[in-house]
């Protein structure tokens, strides 16, 4: 038996989150298949075929899949799913939309946000904003799971060889939903979830203008800029910079927390960073409990000094 990974793509190339999902799939079984469902997405299928560890790519190419509507994509997944022991995808908005429909149609329970694969049927996942790690076992014949990309290495993409691409019959339009429009936020911020360095600011930064200090530091460090929810709610930073339980989950090599207290909901999104540097005026701030380097200081003094040394 083998594992089916649902690829997330922009019709041209596979998104990094799927490369992490392939690594997770390999921990379950060496026979990893990938489904690329979209429209005019041959290039994405070719990209998928060059991911190390992928043995087979299925390509479903149809106008009905052009906008990745969950109703149509999940029907496409269901066409293949019953041949597999596991169906998985990276834990993203895309898969949160698609996989529960697949699980429901298969009449199995979904396992969400898996961070460790213990055996073929036993997994670990965070609950209560990451304060408890639950070990869960599924006895379902097909396991449908989403995996946190921050907990699995990125599979490499090779240039030398590629696995076979098998076209499959695309499903028609389900007809219950309709694509209306897509407005993409234009941002010159580096992608937060794949950045190796993240410079994050909280309420302590004080204003949107002051966030410019963090932007400057980030551009020197080739880093992405993140924010706490308090900073986002106060309008200091855009919504898609939010890190935490209700924001993005990141695990960069280096995470700077400036003026962030370290509420559990924020920690849920960044505590797996390899090295955490916290700067806070309050020596009792909970962020210091998870920080590898903590500085009790005023961020408005520390950031310019740090910048001048880079
Ligand atoms: C259901 C739910 C979901 C949530 N989801 C998220 C989430 O996804 N992400 C998230 O971040 N939060 C989330 N929150 C909110 C969370 O509980 C906290 O309110 C929030 O994280 C606090 O943000 P903060 O640390 O920026 O602000 P504060 O807690 O107000 O901390 C500001 C810090 O800045 C320090 N400071 C002030 N001035 C300076 C200075 N000049 N120099 C250095 N330090 C300074 C202060 O000492 C303080 O520690 C959620 C809450 C709930 C209930």
How does the SSE layout of this entry go?
Layout: E1 3-6, H1 16-28, E2 32-38, H2 42-49, E3 54-61, H3 70-81, E4 86-90, H4 93-106, E5 110-114, E6 116-117, E7 122-127, E8 132-137, E9 143-147, E10 165-167, E11 197-201, H5 211-221, E12 224-227, H6 229-233, E13 254-258, H7 264-270, E14 275-280, H8 287-290, E15 293-296, H9 299-309
Bound molecules: flavin-adenine dinucleotide.
Flavin-adenine dinucleotide binds at residues 202-204, 228-231, 242-247, 259-261, 263, 265-266, 269, 279-282, 285, 298-300.
What report would you give on this structure?
The protein is of the alpha/beta class. 27% of the residues lie in helices and 24% in strands. The strands form 3 sheets. Strands 5-9-4-1-2-3-10 form a 7-stranded parallel β-sheet, sandwiched between helices. The protein has a 5-stranded parallel β-sheet with strand order 12-11-13-14-15. The mean pLDDT is 95. It binds flavin-adenine dinucleotide. Flavin-adenine dinucleotide (FAD) binds at residues 202-204, 228-231, 242-247, 259-261, 263, 265-266, 269, 279-282, 285, 298-300.
Please outline what is shown here.
This protein has 310 residues and is α/β, with parallel strands linked by helices. It has helices at 16-28, 42-49, 70-81, 93-106, 211-221, 229-233, 264-270, 287-290, 299-309; strands spanning 3-6, 32-38, 54-61, 86-90, 110-114, 116-117, 122-127, 132-137, 143-147, 165-167, 197-201, 224-227, 254-258, 275-280, 293-296.
